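Entry:
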Amino acid sequence: MRTFKVIFFISLRQIIRSKKTIFMIALAFLPVLIAIYYRLSGRIVNITPEQAVSFIMMLYSVSITTLVALFYGVSLIADEVDNKTIIYLFTRPIHKYSIPFAKFAVYILTTFLILIPPAIITFLIISIGTLDMTDFTNSLAVFSKQLAVIIFALIVYGAIFLFLGAWQKHSILIGLIFAFGWEKMILIVPGILRRFSVIHYLLSLFPRGVLQSGFNILPPEANVKSPEITSIIVLSSIFIVFFGLSLFAISRKEFRFE
């Protein structure tokens, strides 16, 4: 636990001081600006408050969450390698497994603090004053499930990108191809192929009934869902596999510098 705490606070301090964090916070608060515009402009034609919340949470799930997970997940180990500071972690009398556990804990804390508060603020701006108590309660229940999917996405994508950062030298490029190439292209591909993506199972859990009433940012092919229990099992398995691969890669790989 002592070595875990040391690595945790060192990594947390590095992330807080990073210019990337300022950019990610600004990106995360963009939906808040959309919510403010929605309220100031009055109710936009054919867009109810429930639809507006679901639309913004869909943006979080499909785009913003993926981008935040990519840049933070990959950088957990890759930045240490690029800066040639990872050798100092390995030369100290600490267990190598402490490194990925502490790094991932920092990732979870950071990404949650960046994404969750803006999502809650967005929901409150749109919902308070526009919905009666019954509709607000129903909308809150749906929003809570949508928020849970975003949290699930951060955890699963984080494990994948942690592995890429530990295993591959050009991990950010591979991560971009995966996150904004494969994961987005698969949304328009019909058939069984979409089951080999993370986004399919996340969208299968995402409650978006109000979006199907004529306000949907996804193609029709993306509306095909897998059962919820299947999606939870698959996503949990993906996390376990890639986090396990990360532990193996970090503990076995030899980092050599010229």
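The radius of gyration is 20 Å.
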